């Protein structure tokens, strides 16, 4: 079974989920992420694009017939999807795609290209199951640019016995900036499951990095006896790989690790770094792993001479409420890559559906990508910051502003003048008196459970206050993204951020699980800011400048997106002030089909 993922500029690995059948059934949109390392291959190859399946590429029907389809988030034209990379100034997105149905099935690598991470051109699928090492499906992987500017793709193949192996492919024609055709190495499979690892629990090779000793390194996700780990492999030539005696990272009782990612981040900078940069006094490393439906990460130091990664502050990848996550909502199988054109690290993730499989079949599509995010380390060095890439601002129009607006207890104020179903909204709240904040021992509480227990309709003292998105005029349907301030017995304040989906739709078949996390800010000195990217059935929320992120899928009953409304609200007993707000309607991104596509001719 496999998990799909999408990621820009790099290929993210396909995930095969053996522990959660229900999640598997929802893998309606996978994505691969490609990272590039430099190496030259002179080995025999086989064609990666043998088309023995239906390859129809069709643009979706009109928006009024598809109210849940997004306007500026990447989605496959139809059916089931999945990943990306940068080559000769062109961003490539490779994704897990079922060309036969909008459900999980035999997976090929869908392919789209972009010059700006906003507007996309759909191409024919890049890699099909053709040979024994991937005959059942072509799962997730990562790209590395090898010496000589050669993109090399490592990916997980599922063979005729459903064994997960790691395969290699590269472009057939490097002079084509769209890289339309790919070939596979006849050395495949280049890596097979190690002893003690189940055949279906070994997947998702990472982007490679080059060590000071001249050896390439990758990690592959897996587990032994339900203990998740990132297996470390080394190679002198990118073809022959040897497993290192110890995993680079591991944790007990987490199940299989999926889509592991490992990369450096500079301190005191918003820039990104090439994956091969080693740790130093000013550089740390991030280890990310996906399990239990979430992407967890830890920050630490990496010593390539000892192949040792040491997390800081005692934090691990155990899946506890104290561990760090990229996003505390519906966000999985992410992949990052270094975008050297803008000296930044970019993160993209798969956002699965939360309606039923029957709904997906009726829609004719399933799954989408989060909007690409720039990624860097916070000034404290304790966590990562995420923020939509700047290119998104090209879609903004018709700005609406609001300043110094007081929200009294019980206030609900409509934000008019924007297309509420497709908007970018930034808002900052200023608090006045914190002394009466509710007392909660936040060190021992699960923030998601707290958001469920104290939702938007539960009156507090300082909060809940925030935004009601994708709301009906009568507010019977609404998605509340809000904050609430607590203090512990010692007077230390905590800020809770929630995405309350309990009233997001009156439809009974939708998963309306609420999400929540604490935000690392001190409300005595800092205003509390919130940014929401609203796009029909997805809302990406960024608290405190990207310190805490929550992504939600919503499916309100009202079918005409013109009926959507946007409000600011305060359900706390104390007033709060909107110090400033800017909201923009968002234009549609352009999604077109290349004229060379087989089904377009």
Automatic annotation (TrEMBL):
CDD domains: GH32_Fruct1-like (cd18624). GO terms for molecular function: hydrolase activity, hydrolyzing O-glycosyl compounds. It holds the Pfam family Glyco_hydro_32N. The keyword Ribonucleoprotein does not apply. Its EC number is 3.2.1.-. Residues 73-388 form the Glycosyl hydrolase family 32 N-terminal domain. SMART domains: Glyco_32. It comes from the Eukaryota. It is an enzyme of class 3 (hydrolase). InterPro entries: ConA-like_dom_sf, Fructan_Metab_Enzymes, Glyco_hydro_32, Glyco_hydro_32_C, Glyco_hydro_32_N, Glyco_hydro_beta-prop_sf. PANTHER family: BETA-FRUCTOFURANOSIDASE, INSOLUBLE ISOENZYME CWINV1-RELATED (PTHR31953). Belongs to the glycosyl hydrolase 32 family. This is Glycosidase. It comes from Helianthus annuus. The lineage of its organism: Eukaryota, Viridiplantae, Streptophyta, Embryophyta, Tracheophyta.
């Amino acid at each position: 079974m496999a998990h799909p993922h999408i990621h820009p500029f790099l290929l993210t690995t396909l995930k095969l989920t053996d522990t959660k059948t229900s999640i598997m059934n929802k893998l309606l949109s996978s994505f691969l992420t490609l990272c590039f390392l430099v190496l030259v291959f002179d080995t025999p190859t086989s064609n990666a694009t043998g088309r023995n399946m239906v390859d129809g590429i069709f643009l979706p029907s009109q928006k009024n017939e598809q109210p849940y389809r997004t306007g500026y988030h990447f989605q496959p034209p139809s059916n089931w999807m999945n990943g990306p990379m940068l080559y000769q100034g062109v961003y490539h997105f490779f994704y897990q795609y079922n060309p036969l149905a909008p459900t999980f099935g035999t997976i090929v690598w869908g392919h789209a290209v972009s010059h700006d991470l906003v507007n996309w051109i759909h191409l024919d699928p890049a890699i099909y199951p053709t040979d024994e090492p991937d005959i059942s499906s072509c799962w997730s992987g990562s790209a590395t640019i090898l010496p000589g500017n050669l993109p090399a793709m490592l990916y997980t193949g599922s063979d005729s016995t459903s064994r997960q192996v790691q395969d290699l492919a590269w472009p057939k024609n490097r002079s084509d900036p769209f890289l339309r055709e790919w070939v596979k190495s006849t050395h495949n499979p280049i890596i097979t499951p190690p002893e003690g690892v189940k055949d279906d629990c070994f997947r998702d090779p990472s982007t490679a990095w080059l060590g000071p000793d001249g050896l390439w390194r990758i990690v592959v996700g897996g587990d032994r006896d339900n203990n998740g780990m990132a297996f470390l492999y080394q190679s002198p030539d990118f073809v022959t790989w040897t497993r290192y005696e110890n995993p680079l990272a591991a944790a007990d009782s987490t199940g299989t690790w999926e889509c592991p990612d490992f990369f450096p981040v500079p301190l005191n900078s918003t820039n990104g770094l090439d994956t091969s940069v080693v740790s130093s006094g000013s550089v740390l490393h991030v280890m990310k792993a996906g399990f239990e439906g979430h992407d967890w990460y830890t920050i630490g130091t990496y010593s390539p001479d000892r192949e040792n990664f040491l997390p800081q502050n005692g934090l691990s990848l155990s899946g506890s409420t104290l561990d760090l996550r990229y996003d505390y909502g519906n966000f999985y199988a992410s992949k990052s890559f270094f975008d050297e054109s803008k000296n930044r690290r970019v993160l993209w993730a798969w956002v699965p559906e939360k309606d039923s499989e029957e709904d997906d079949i009726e829609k004719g599509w399933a799954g989408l990508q989060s909007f690409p995010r720039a990624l860097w380390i916070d000034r404290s060095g304790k966590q990562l910051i995420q923020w939509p890439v700047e290119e998104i601002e090209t879609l903004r129009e018709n700005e609406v502003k609001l300043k110094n607006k007081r929200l009294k207890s019980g206030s609900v104020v409509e934000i008019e003048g924007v297309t509420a179903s497709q908007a970018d909204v930034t808002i900052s709240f200023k608090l006045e008196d914190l002394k009466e904040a509710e007392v909660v021992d936040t060190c021992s509480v699960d923030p998601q459970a707290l958001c469920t227990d104290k939702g938007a309709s539960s009156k507090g003292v300082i909060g809940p206050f925030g935004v009601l998105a994708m709301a009906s005029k009568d507010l019977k349907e609404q998605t509340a993204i809000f904050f609430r301030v607590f203090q512990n017995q010692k007077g230390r304040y905590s800020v809770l951020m929630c995405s309350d989906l309990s009233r997001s739709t009156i439809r009974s078949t939708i998963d309306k699980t609420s999400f929540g996390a604490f935000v690392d800010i001190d409300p005595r000195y800092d205003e509390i800011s919130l940014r929401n990217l609203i796009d029909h059935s997805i809302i990406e929320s960024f608290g405190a400048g990207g310190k805490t992120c929550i992504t939600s899928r919503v499916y309100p009953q009202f079918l005409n997106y013109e009926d959507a409304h946007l409000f600011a609200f305060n359900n706390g007993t104390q007033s709060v002030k909107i110090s400033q707000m800017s909201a923009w309607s968002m234009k549609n991104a352009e999604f077109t089909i290349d004229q060379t596509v087989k089904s377009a001719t």
